[in-house]
Amino acid sequence: MVSPSAKEVFIQGVTSQGRTFRPSDWAERLAGVMSQFRPGGAWLGGHLSYSPWCVPTVINGVKCVVVHRDLQAAEPMAWDFVMNFAKDNDLQVAEACLVPDEKPAKG
After folding, report:
1. Which tens digits make up the pLDDT trace of 10-60?
2. Tell me: the pLDDT tens digits for 84-107?
3. 10 Å Cβ neighbour count for 26?
4. Which InterPro entries is this protein grouped with (predicted)?
């Protein structure tokens, strides 16, 4: 179950049994489908970039999709689609906050 207080949900490319989810480009495909759902709505050419609400990434060697809670507020059906994708494919889901890499101090 996903807590409403989490700002981001991580769908991990690992099943509850610990198996790597296939196909290997699943995260990019899912984020591509969700590219039209973005702040301000869809725009011409928007399908050529990922939505900031649904971004594929790799964390500790595991493919993931980071889904921002703002997607749920703006497009509840899109949120349900992503969460049901994770559930239907038995993927691990974690709540967290993505912390940007620290930039080295200039000196």
Report:
1. 999 999 999 999 999 999 999 999 998 988 766 666 557 899 999 999 999
2. 999 999 999 998 765 565 666 565
3. 19
4. DUF3579
Q: Looking at the chain, list the stretches that DSSP marks H as alpha helix, in order from N- to C-terminal side.
A: 26-33, 70-74, 76-88
Largest CA distance in the chain: 50
Give me the DSSP letters along 24-45: TTHHHHHHHHGGG--TT---TT
**How buried is residue 8: exposed, middle or buried, by Cβ count under 10 Å (0-12/13-18/19+)?**
middle
**CA quadruple 70, 73, 76, 80: dihedral sign:** positive
Distance CA 71, CA 51 (A): 10
List Cα–Cα distances, 80 to 13, 21, 26, 41, 51, in angstroms: 18, 20, 17, 18, 16
Which two structure tokens, joined as six digits, stand for 54?
Answer: 């649904």
Residues 61, 24 contacting (CB under 8 angstroms): no
Q: What is the fold of 8-96?
A: Alpha-Beta Plaits (3.30.70)
